Amino acid sequence: xxxxxxxxxxxxxxxxxxxxxxxxxxxxxxxxxxxxxxxxxxxxxxxxxxxxxxxxxxxxxxxxxxxxxxxxxxxxxxxxxxxxxxxxxxxxxxxxxxxxxxxxxxxxxxxxxxxxxxxxxxxxxxxxxxxxxxxxxxxxxxxxxxxxxxxxxxxxxxxxxxxxxxxxxxxxxxxxxxxxxxxxxxxxxxxxxxxxxxxxxxxxxxxxxxxxxxxxxxxxxxxxxxxxxxxxxxxxxxxxxxxxxxxxxxxxxxxxxxxxxxxxx
Length: 265
Prior knowledge:
Blueprint: H1 4-18, H2 21-30, H3 34-38, H4 40-52, H5 55-58, H6 68-98, H7 100-123, H8 132-160, H9 166-195, H10 200-232, H11 238-257
């Protein structure tokens, strides 16, 4: 049985022979008829086709890795990856509509987990291990507190202030900075401190120390985020966008929550 490489070498040798000057001179010398010279190219094509029709030539082993079939496979693979990404987005949007609270809560939990791990990476020495109990507290807070309350808050805002004009958006931003933000900041510090074993006096002392500075920093960070969220994002996706903005803010909040206990006066 002839190997595929031998077939390729045979085909190349035949092509070189048929197009060589010596073969041309022989054809011209022995066959001066123009029709014979004209069919010399047909003979080359006939021999090439005969070689290509060999079983080895039709097999996948003999085919070139740069053939059109290989490129089509690559295109199909790329399309598959694209379809998977689009499919995930479609699936997520359907989950947001069918199970909004659950989907938004789990999304918030994932973001809080990633933010806390990032905060520990930035603040802890490299020799100190990660505090996964702290990460679990942040994940639970995002799942049980922030996720559901964000869903309720944005729906409430859309009902009492349904427009997206500049004035309505400004009103939503003001309510977020004066109502939702302060309440959730107090809940965050109080609940996190209680889970760490701090008593009532220590929790109040922590709030006195950290509450106002946190609100001031929030007033510098959140207005632009809230403007984009309320002005341009549909209501059912606003918690997701807000959670995306809250990643950097949560890195800061988890750092503040990890500070030492405040001494009661």
